[in-house]
Amino acid sequence: MDSTLMTSFIFVEEPVEIMDREVKRLKQSRIPLVKVRRNSKRGPEFTWKREDQFRKKYPHLFARTAST
Fold first, then answer.
1. Beta carbons of 54 and 36 less than 8 angstroms apart
2. Where in the chain are the domains?
3. DSSP 4-56
4. Are 30 and 23 in contact (CB under 8 A)?
């Protein structure tokens, strides 16, 4: 297959929406988490991510949830 043709078949699974929030409590610390929905080839997928790291990479998703 031609390499230029192959590049058009790449599917990027970008996060779509923040579904929920949770705080994990450890001995001395608390870790804010967000439940993220992604669209994939197999349908919607959900995963928990650290809020601070996720907010740096995808700040536009937090702008949407700030009003709710």
1. yes
2. 13-65
3. HHHGGG-----EEEEEEEEEEE-SS-EEEEEEEEEEETTEEEEEEEEHHHHHH
4. yes
